[in-house]
Amino acid sequence: MAKFEVFIPMPGNPKGVVVMSESQDYMEALKEALTNRGLADCMKHILCDVKENGLIVVTDTDSRRKFYLREVDPANTTDIRDLVEEKKSSWVADKITPKDELLADLFTEVMDGWDLPQQKGIDFFLDLALKYIPCESGSFARSDLSTTDMEFVSCRGPKADSVLGIKVRVGQGLVGFAARHSCYVAVGDVQKDPRFFKDISEKIGYETNSIVCVPIKSLETNITFGVLELINKKGSSRFDTDDMEAMRFIGEKMGEYFHKIWTGTNNTFD
In what order do the strands lie in the sheet with 167-169? Predict the structure, then answer.
């Protein structure tokens, strides 16, 4: 169990509230802190970003409210609120609204994949994400709904053939973290994030710098069908608000696509 410091900004209170929580990971720490203060509803659609100084910024994309965490380190005496002040110019802007043109273009294109068979549909959504958020690599890890395993069934990039077929557990690495907690995860420097599962990168000989993961789930049944992942954004070390909004839109439509297949095959993928 790790100990986390959670900062909750509060309206009318410039100092906010700082809570200590001992949990297995920072998402559990945040859930506990918010639930104890009647703010559990802020955990439905969330985006996580790990900063270079170890500060974790969690944004509720519905209310645009932000919460801040870090793992407690006795050697670090800096007030967490001072770190928050330094990050007011963060890429997670106060307004998480994409350009109208981006949303309109995506809406038009996503319809082209609606009636594709499953594997072609998965490939379509992955390619669409890479088109709108240019990255070196991308993949989709599909959940085995009868176990806690996920398998990479669609991959793009220099090491795509080596990644295809690899399995990870729900909760393992950033992909597994996104699946377990049903949250969007964006990390600009994965080497500084303890959740990064470096074994795959080392095994295939591929250097990973930045990652964004989006859980693909049915909003009707809450079933998570897998995780869409993009690696190493081109031209930048960080993902911006338009990137994240595009990923969210694609993720939601991919979830609807999977739900349609799921209900159309008597709740199986056979």
Answer: 13-23, 2-10, 65-71, 56-60, 46-50, 184-187, 211-217, 224-233, 135-143, 149-156, 167-169
Q: Is 98 exposed, middle or buried (0-12, 13-18, 19+ CB in 10 A)?
A: middle
Query: CA-to-CA distance for 227 and 40, rounded, in angstroms?
Result: 23
* Global model pTM greater than 0.90: no
With 80 as the cut, is the pLDDT of residue 140 above it?
yes
Closest C-alpha among 148, 145, 136 to residue 230: 136
SS3 184: strand
The dihedral over CA atoms of 183, 228, 105, 42, expressed in degrees to the nearest 10, equals 0
Q: How far are the Cα atoms of 157, 186, 194 from residue 232, in angstroms, in the given order?
A: 10, 11, 18
Whether the CB-CB separation of 8 and 34 falls below 8 Å is answered with yes
The token pair at 151 is 């398998």
Backbone torsions φ then ψ of 57, nearest 5 degrees = -105, 125
pLDDT digits (tens, 9 = 90+) for 185-234: 888 777 666 666 677 777 788 888 888 999 999 988 889 999 999 999 99
* DSSP codes, 198-226: HHHHHHHT-----EEEEEEE-TTT--EEE
Going from N- to C-terminal start, the domains of the chain cover: 2-86, 100-264
Cβ atoms 67, 7 nearer than 8 A: yes
> Residue 25 gets which letter from DSSP?
S
Beta carbons of 162 and 248 less than 8 angstroms apart: no
CATH number of 100-264: 3.30.450.40
pLDDT tens by residue, 55-81: 888 888 777 788 999 989 888 888 888
More confident residue, 92 or 37: 37
| Distance separating alpha carbons of residues 226 and 142, to the nearest angstrom | 4
